[in-house]
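Re-running the complex after MR caught last week's input typo. The corrected sequence lines follow. Everything else is unchanged.
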Amino acid sequence: MNTFLQVLTNGIMLGSLFAIVAVGLTLIFGIVKVVNFAHGEFLMVGMYLTYVLTTWMGIHPFATVILVAPALFLLGAVTQRFLIQPLMSADDDHIQIFATVGLSTALINLALLVFGADIASTPASGLRTPLQLGPVRLLSGQVAILVASIAVVVVLQLFLSRTQTGRAIRAVAQNRAAAQLMGINVNWIYILTFGIGAACVGVASVLIAPLYPTSSGIGTYFVLTAFVVVVLGGLGSIGGAFAGAMIIGLIDSFAGFYIGSDLREVAVFGVFLLILILKPSGLFSSRLNLSHVSP
Amino acid sequence: MTDISTTSPRSQAASNGWMLKAIPLAAILASLVLIPVIVGNQFVYHIFITICIFAALSTAWNIVGGFAGQLSLGHAIFYGIGAYTGVILMNMGISPWIGMFAGAAIAVLAAVIISYPCFRLHGPFFALATIAFLEVFRVLALHWRELTGGATGLMIPLQIGWEWMVFRDRLPQLLIAFGLLLLTLAVAWWIRSHRIGFYLVATRERESAALAAGVGTVRVRLAAVAVSAALTAFVGTFHAMYLTFIEPAAMFSLQMSIQIAMFALIGGLGTVFGPLLGAVLLVPISELARAWLGAHALGLHGFVYGVVLMLVVLFMPNGLMGLISRFTKQRRERGVLAGTIAASAATPDARQRAPIGADVMRVEHLQKHFGGLHVTNDVGFTLREGEILGLIGPNGAGKTTVFNMISGFLKPDSGSVTVRAADGSWQSPTTPGDFATIGVGRTFQIVQPFAAMTVEENIMVGAFHRYSDVEEAREVARETAERMGLGPWLDAEARGLTIGGLKRLEVARVMAMKPRILLLDEVMAGINQTDVRRAIDLMKSIRDSGVSIVAIEHVMQAVMSLSDRVIVLNSGKIIAQGEPREVVKDPVVVEAYLGKEFIDAQA
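Corrected-run output:
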């Protein structure tokens, strides 16, 4: 029973990790309607930034968020403005896919060039301290991720539903042309959204860096799961992404324990393929109207 | 009906363009073998073998990713299957020459099983699904250690000679790689220049229009995937023998899949020789960077690749081949336009009209609901041979829904559609393909051109329904184009036509199928008066050749002068039918169109 609880807890912790990575992806996916294949590399950039700031300047990893999140916002905004925006009107979606795939390839290899193939370990700063909660053990850094992922989801939901800008973003997502006619600067909304999506990854990277060693390939590891989460949760649905992340976290954790740790990915991607093929709109109906981007 | 004299300067120009491409192509291919043989350096051999391998992989990928437009980022699956099958069988004492066919067979099986459910997915979702499958294969290859050696990988046994595909010399390896490249190029060229290639591009451009033209869209794409997978597996087997060592991370690698697709994009997606060009330009960069800069520049070539990829999509999305064809086309068009400005308008045949014959289509008790909306309520009618039946009604009356049900695009909730086949038997087709086979052709209210194809190629897709030979289909397409007044635009891309031109193209494509029943959905909406008159003449001449027509039309002038009978649909129900003159006087019809107040005012 204790083992079961431990596996369950691990699943929830893993789920919150996936959630915080996937939230930004689903936002970009749902509003700009672009699949950002470079999302994982944004995470990698954020983690390297955290590593550099903590090791060179000795700042606590969490404190670097005040620099990392804006830096990632800028990276996202620049990506949208100079890479995606010129391609928004391309009638062939190959083009946008190749654009972000190109960005992803360039960033991975840039990291290899700058940091080499060795892994970079951000100082744990007490975040790898185990906590004993009744029968289960977990790390304080994991609890921070859980808390932060819930906070990010709540803040984003409030922002989208309560603020004027948030409403404008939702309007653009529902009908680009109509929003434009209402005087919304659509291109600016896209840049903003891409920036916010990337800034979410910035927050994620600050939380993840002390727990996972950074390498140039770390993005690929996380982003594939993030895609699974986003499709599972319904494109553009932030709450859905959170729920989807929890499900995938639990599947990963239980499959790893009961089937075999090397087959966890088969279970996760198996679920992904089933969802894509059987119910491509995701398990949870999306709050944003995305009928025209559904697969 | 074909005017031979108008086609000859075109074909001459086309053959010039062909020569313009053939010579550099032959030069590139020849230099792939000659340069390493002349230089004789081991490293140069290695670069050129790698070029051939990647060019072949990329060409094979392009059959799916380019022609069919299914962006696979999991093609390393088939490469890996080829490699593993070859090595595993070789370790059992079976020659890789046999192993490569075994690998291809397994790859084809995997390709069909993977692709069939994924064809419903488009764009990024298809790409994501293929990546997911790739990950599954990689993890499974790591897991089944007894078979694959797991993470430690597999070595090939040291058996040298032609029968083992393993050599001390580089030359035989180069020849095999080059042979594989030629094979892939030949297959890609064959596909692109035959019916299946047209079908693939048509499916990529407009799936519904392709269905209406009788294309088995799933079948042709499965065929493309199967061929592509087999070729990729061939290359995989050989590459494994060349590398002498394989491991899951290298064989089932996402980076590799991306690279294969990237060469095709940079060279020119969907072109036969683009992938070759992309590989010839980019492979040396990475190999040289790896050799000269070594570990210092870890990631440098990848970084260059990524940047080049972004620049290409931003500034030349049609790739190198796009640049080349823009250059050659300019030269060609100047020659063509001068001779053919005098457009030949459609001339109605002076033939006598055939009498209206027996029933050819029976529509009975069609019902259709969309949620709570009852869009078709007990619609039934018959269509007779050589008859023009007008289908009119206000917006939202359900006309197009009826069309979709009598062409197989929508399944009625209840009711039946039966069509008399050419042999006189009555059949109940259900899919768009069935309808096309039995001789029902349709147009779409919102025109659905295959935008990236020329006018001629658009019409050929229809013509292929009856003629499998390319030249025959081309002949029929030209004839049809002349008849529709599209003759001067045969070589123009469909996306450049005006709305009137697109409507005519829509009709031309379906006419080239030589249908016995023609369903025309608002072909006159939004075109000018001259074109309307021309269209009326055209419909008469089609009718006189014995084709039965159902036409949805809002242009009353056309409805009145053409229709033998008119059916008026309102809110999903037939509210009147009969001769045009009587129907328009029917107060129920007037009310449906103009409202009750109008009747009261007249009274």
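None of the earlier attempt is carried over here. The longest strand of chain B covers residues 359-370. The radius of gyration of chain B is 29 Å.
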